[in-house]
Amino acid sequence: MFFRGDLVQCPALGQLDILPDYLLEVDDSGFLTHVSPANSPESCKKLDSSSISLTIIPPGSFLLPTFCDLHLHAPQSLYHGTGLHRPLMEWLDEYAFKAEERLDADPILARRVYKCLAERLIENGTGAVSLFGTIKEETNLILAEVMQAAGLRAFVGKLSMDISSRPSYVEASAQESLSAVESFVKNCHALVSHLPEHKRLVEPVITPRFVPSCSDDLLAGLGAMSEAKSLRIQSHLAEAHDQIEWVKRERGVDDIEIFDRHALLTPRTIQAHCTFVDSQSLSLLRTRGTAIAHCPLSNAYFSAKPFPLHEALQTVKVGLGTDVAGGYSLDIMSAMRQSVVVSRMREGSRIMHGTEGGCQHSETCESLSVDWKESLYLATRSGALALNLPRGCGLFTVGSPFDVQYIRVFDAETNLGVGALDFFDAVLSGKSPGLSPEMVEKWWSLGDVRNRAGVWVQGIKLTG
């Protein structure tokens, strides 16, 4: 399988590569075996073959690595877009726990909700996602089945919580919770064990909901299980003021210390939010190799301060999360835009008051803002690194999986932009513009699902 056209990638923070007229070859297992300009001798030799199956990406369009969503609550897509008027701990009681409990009681509804979620993720260009599920094993196995069938890379977490403000939605004890996790891990692996390794897209994730819902015994057991079985871990860290105060009041220390004490900060761990982390906490996360899922929209609703993205990018692995339903949009493009907006507001505060990042002399301090190119890196390559995806994910390089989205920006036949994009100079001149950083930025700013003509994961076309 061959593709010929323009490529866009962000191999490093702040770096945007536009690779014009490249030829890609994808093998039967969905890996790239050739990445080279179409006019190179090797490419020309391949193109001369009459037997190749070639997809042409026309001028005004490009291929881009799929997006990574590092933090999403799958059952909460039942009601996302509502209920965001309460503080975090109240919102969990009133909305989140009820929705999760409802899906645990209704497997037919759970399957319907999860199929819709998978369709929406693909529609929005997400190829890999880290998912929080519910406390019931069977419901999480449904989630894993649906994601595998949809062709998405999905890391599925059965929630662990032996403490709850909702008596009907809690596990009976730390030991019962640990036994349930062990069973889920075994059965989740069994779902894909019959497949070749490159087709095993779903993995289980150790998922203590957050410190307020987990006893020390449960956290200790989860840490030991993760270490013994080399399992991924995901949770929430230093998210909201009321959550942080609860932990300090009940446990006497910050939640990062509790996670670290129980071996839950590892190179296999992703911690969501981290809005209240300081430089010392970031240093600890760096030492442990732990990544952060930055969720700018839900942070705006539930955290009393913005996440220090600029500082974190100098220290740890960071990717983006939608945090449905704490965030109301499944679209990583929205998360990219919001990450830039929040960072610019932090920079404005630094300039006016010197209140961010400990800077008291704004004219001499480093800018706290990030730009659109840096956010595109977060959504693609950086997210892939944070998720520990297969080698090369987020890049066009030989050996990497073909996890790609096909973006249409400009229609060369009509000289018109696609979707919400307009190119007035092209209309007036009658000449099609070549792909440029400005054109990619316009898509970044204004693009939507109308610009996405196809999505592939591991070489399999999922839509378009």
Automatic annotation (TrEMBL):
GO BP, sorted A to Z: guanine metabolic process
GO cellular component, one term: cytosol
Pfam family, one: Amidohydro_1
Domain of life where this protein originates: Eukaryota
Annotated signal peptide: none
Cofactors named for this entry: Zn(2+)
Keywords attached to this entry: Hydrolase, Metal-binding, Zinc
A GO term for molecular function: zinc ion binding
Domain called Amidohydrolase-related: residue spans: 62-406
SUPFAM superfamilies: Metallo-dependent hydrolases
Gene3D superfamilies assigned: Metal-dependent hydrolases, Urease, subunit C, domain 1
UniProt protein name: Amidohydrolase-related domain-containing protein
